[in-house]
Amino acid sequence: MTKYGVVVGSIRKNSYSKGVADALVAGLPEDSEVTYIDIHHLPLYNQDYDADSPEEYTAFRSVIAAQDAFIFVTPEHNRSISAALKNALDVGSRPWGQNSWAGKPALVASQSISGIAGILANHVLRQSLVFLDMTTMQQPELYIGNVQNLADEEGHITNTDTQAFLASATQQFVLFADKLIG
User: Fold this and answer.
1) Pseudo-torsion of CA 159, 161, 164, 169, nearest 10°?
2) pTM for the full model?
3) pLDDT tens, position by position, 33-73
4) Which CATH superfamily is domain 3-181 in?
């Protein structure tokens, strides 16, 4: 049984990113263990905490270390990833030499209410994951534009073509991750 951690870069209620994440998770095998990893409670990363980390950091790093693979879904904020997601990446990768993300396969998806579909946030996230020693699935690329037209008021993806596309992408990620996990 593979353990999949799901990191949603938006912390807003009824987030479209959460809706995309749910649609991706729907494509996982039934015996998968899925953990949505909460990032909203993490104090802003500060290197001064490395010697004596807050409990939120320690617990977060433990949850990350316990996962086999990750699904990341990010909104686009000012042509980049959200501050909450950047903070989570930093907290999980520190202190220096104790990177909890290292060696894990990752699926990256982005969404936006604009037509450019969060493409820049997607690539900013990929760039960070390369540095964190995560192997990202390259194809299919998951850019979901005009997401508000594909979802209901609670952020759930309701468009059946989009649901099918995301579930299919996740099935490809399962094969990708299985090769890396062994």
Assistant:
1) -110
2) 0.97
3) 999 999 999 999 999 999 999 999 999 999 999 999 999 99
4) Flavodoxin domain (3.40.50.360)
